[in-house]
Design goal:
three-stranded mixed β-sheet, alpha+beta, 46% helix, single chain, 2 domains, 7 helices, DciA-like, flat, 3 strands, DUF721 domain-containing protein
């Protein structure tokens, strides 16, 4: 029996997931009026490391020049720190987006996980504050929590 060559052309490889998803997310960001994805990507360079750790850009609201940029922050302390820096931040954002693009910054507390590791426990040998039965009870409690967490 004679083998016939395939009449179908070879399939090309699937497009890279990063390229496809980037275009989908960029379109979604434009539809929901979220800040330009490039702005979010360059946020640490625009805002500075300190403010970038405390905030992330959200939506651009308003019409025409002089829009309002919403910044999402995790808590009230971060909101106060970002609010104190808004004048300089507006100038830096406008140097990236164009003159007069942003006239106002609205700081919104969006909640979220804290960046710190939480409260630190005292060293192993230290029973903690107080002495006597309270120190013994705290040491016993710490040991029970450590045993429970190590089992996970």
């Amino acid at each position: 029996m004679r083998a016939y060559p395939s009449t179908r052309p070879a399939r090309s490889a699937a497009p890279a997931l990063a390229r496809v998803s980037a275009s989908v997310f960029a379109d979604l960001a434009k539809k929901t009026k979220y800040a330009d994805p490039a702005l979010a990507e360059r946020w640490p360079a625009i805002a500075g490391e300190k403010l970038a750790e405390l905030s992330r850009p959200g939506r651009l609201t308003g019409r025409g020049p002089g829009k309002t940029l919403e910044l999402r922050v995790p808590n009230g302390a971060a909101a106060a720190a970002v609010q104190m820096e808004t004048d300089g931040l507006i100038a830096r954002v406008n140097s990236y987006l164009g003159p007069g693009a942003v006239a106002r910054i609205a700081v919104i507390q969006a909640g979220g996980p804290a960046k710190s590791g939480g409260p630190k426990s005292p060293p192993e040998g230290d029973p903690g504050p107080g002495d006597g039965s309270l120190g013994t009870a705290l040491a016993s409690f710490r040991a029970a929590v450590k045993r429970r967490n190590s089992g996970k």
